[in-house]
């Protein structure tokens, strides 16, 4: 099985560590190990004492107990810890789907949500977000997409790359559809917790549906991508058994220091969320003013959650705009061609402290472009 190249990651491999300014990152501002340990001043001793042998295959018991506190109806033994969310996605697709199956996927989306399945011989039906309605989803459309071969529905809430967050009624309708047809509901929830209004937070899918698999990670909500830690939570014994067995051919077990530090992070989830959401809210205010000034060039649907938005360009193609912006200013944006969604949008990230400074560079570039065109 050979999936197509992951276009977004190939793009980042070329530019992420060479571009002078990043304006498309999907993760919030991170921190040092020292800053994380400061949440528990005595934890440095535990880090020193961490045994550097193999850890338990599903994840350290102490970590899984902490992760279980993020859910209402999940126990520690209903969680499998992975080395990043990507490994968990790959494992689910390889264990719960088979050639000839059919799957419905929330689109535009994260490439591994569909490319891995397609490489396995699974046919994929896109469930398209409606840009004209703020990138919303229409649950009624699902009945037009389901077939006798449909085995799974993959959704991303809060959504990457649009920042869309369904209402509770829409969420419940999605779960009801999956239950009616006996589908696996793979729910990518790596941004859950970064709702811009806490009142909008939805339940985890695994807490409300017995065939749901909730995907979590420390990269987004906690801003700790360098720990390389993700997990799935599910009530399904079948999923737990199959994915555990498949993990024997992947990382087997995880990094012991990473699991120790991750347990600290999860214990301080509320503080880390508040840290990140406060940056996000401040940056959104700056973005609102920016897009109001440049309404003739961009169409902006303000996200309700997460650290990224999907912006329509009114005058030019995304690939050309991003290439010229990078060449002339050193600012990196992500064109929509990399998420298989035409050439009219860019992904913009607003979870970093320096976003206002980087946006000012773009602002000056746009003003200069207008001036040079006018002259």
From TrEMBL:
Organism superkingdom: Bacteria
InterPro entries to which the protein is assigned, alphabetical: Aminotransferase_I/II_large, PyrdxlP-dep_Trfase, PyrdxlP-dep_Trfase_major, PyrdxlP-dep_Trfase_small
Pfam families: Aminotran_1_2
Gene3D superfamilies found in the cross-reference section: Aspartate Aminotransferase, domain 1 (3.90.1150.10), Type I PLP-dependent aspartate aminotransferase-like (Major domain) (3.40.640.10)
One Gene Ontology MF term: transaminase activity
The keyword Transferase appears for this protein: yes
Keywords: Aminotransferase, Transferase
Matches recorded under SUPFAM superfamilies: PLP-dependent transferases
Aminotransferase class I/classII large domain location: 46-350
Protein's name in the database: Aminotransferase
């Amino acid at each position: 099985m050979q999936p197509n190249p992951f276009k977004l990651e190939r793009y980042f491999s070329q530019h992420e560590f060479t571009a002078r300014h990043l304006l498309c990152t999907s993760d919030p501002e991170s921190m040092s190990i020292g800053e994380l340990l400061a949440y528990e001043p005595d934890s440095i001793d535990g880090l020193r004492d961490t045994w550097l042998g193999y850890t338990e295959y599903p994840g350290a018991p102490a970590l899984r107990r902490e992760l279980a506190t993020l859910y209402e109806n999940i126990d520690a033994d209903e969680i499998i810890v992975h080395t990043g969310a990507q490994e968990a996605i790959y494992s689910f697709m390889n264990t719960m789907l088979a050639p000839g199956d059919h799957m419905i996927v929330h689109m535009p989306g994260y490439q591994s949500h569909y490319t891995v399945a397609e490489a396995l011989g699974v046919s994929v039906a896109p469930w398209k977000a409606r840009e004209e309605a703020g990138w919303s989803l229409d649950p009624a459309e699902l009945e037009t997409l389901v077939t006798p071969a449909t085995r799974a529905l993959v959704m991303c809430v809060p959504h990457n790359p649009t920042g869309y967050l369904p209402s509770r009624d829409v969420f419940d309708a999605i779960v009801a559809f999956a239950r009616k047809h006996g589908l696996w509901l793979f729910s990518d929830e790596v941004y859950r917790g970064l709702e811009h209004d806490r009142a909008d937070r939805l339940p985890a899918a695994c807490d409300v549906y017995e065939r749901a698999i909730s995907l979590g990670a420390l990269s987004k909500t906690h801003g700790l991508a360098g720990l390389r830690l993700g997990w799935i939570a599910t009530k399904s014994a079948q999923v737990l058994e199959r994915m555990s067995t498949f993990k024997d051919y992947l990382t087997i077990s995880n990094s012991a220091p990473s699991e120790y530090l991750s347990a600290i992070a999860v214990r301080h989830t509320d503080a880390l969320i508040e840290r990140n959401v406060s940056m996000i809210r401040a940056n959104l205010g700056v973005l609102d003013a920016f897009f109001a000034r440049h309404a003739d060039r961009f169409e902006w649907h303000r996200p309700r959650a997460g650290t990224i938005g999907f912006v329509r360009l009114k005058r030019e193609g995304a690939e050309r705009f991003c290439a010229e912006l990078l060449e002339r200013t050193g600012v990196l944006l992500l064109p929509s061609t990399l998420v298989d969604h035409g050439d009219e949008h860019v992904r913009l990230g607003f979870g970093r402290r320096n976003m206002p400074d980087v946006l000012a560079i773009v602002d000056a570039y746009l003003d200069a472009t207008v001036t040079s065109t006018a002259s």
